Amino acid sequence: MLLAAPGAWAQQELLPYARECAEKIGPIPAFDCRKGTRVPITVNGKTPVAYVPQMTCDRPSLLPPGEGENTDGQCIPESRALVLRDDGKVQISAYCRQKKIRPANTYLYDEVDLISHNVETGSTCWFQALAPNPLSADKGLDGRRVPPPEEATPPPGKVAAKDFWNPPVKTASGNCGSCHDSDPFMYSPLIGQTGQMPRDPLGLYANDIGEDFKKWPKPFAISTRGNTCTGCHRIGSQHTCNTAMYESVGETLSPYLDSWAMVYPNSHWMPPGLSMSLGQWETTYRSSVEELARCCKDPKAPGCIVTPITGASKP
What we know:
Layout: H1 6-24, E1 37-38, E2 80-86, E3 90-97, E4 108-109, E5 111-118, E6 124-130, E7 141-142, H2 161-164, H3 168-173, H4 176-179, H5 189-192, H6 211-214, E8 220-224, H7 239-248, H8 278-297, E9 304-308
Antiparallel strand pairs: 1-2, 2-3, 3-5, 4-7, 5-6, 8-9
């Protein structure tokens, strides 16, 4: 009976999805969030003496709070980023996120996200775990051993996968694919500074595993002939077209940005590692950005190139 109990329902939903992901992409190992790279939260280029709720910083999180979450803002220390595998065939990354301010030695987290991607086929899987609301600094997800989503029986005394990870239908309801519309691993200044992010910006990409994820709208890549930006990466037709592209060139500013982050070159995070003057940036990239903005607003406009983003299997 599928409706026997919440735990039974989650097990029947999560494990088949996770097993298919492991089969078609690769197994996911257990991991310890604390061994990930600490995501720096700096203010005007320096580590602050103390962190306070709702503060501003150089590189705030671009992930908005979940509905009804009582977070401490977008500049919370002690999040961790991990690359669990990146060998040219399989890419697996995890992000152990803090939404409440906790001590540096904490093992508690408010959210754990994991992306598993097959470079050769484009197939991509998504896993998410959320601490229950209301969030509290002294409660949260135990990140000392995050179980493999496909693990049916945990080691003695350890949490089971079905009790840690959300069922696929709940993860899919977050519509992660709308923001990750260009490729599985979207660059942001927050995560980019850790170096813990696989890259497959022009490779195959499809959310073709799990019925709940197959329902996500299929993104398109927007470009124009000879466009400088799309020579390095795609511009997805959803969040990238509507928001991320403007954030990356300093035209849309998060309210959590400090004064350091509002001045060029810190206000521009595309391309990463800028070493040119603002005048040089304008000469090199401005017309390409304007052309992309025109095509994002009207993909059928003259000169716009619209290409489906797919995996090895045709949609």
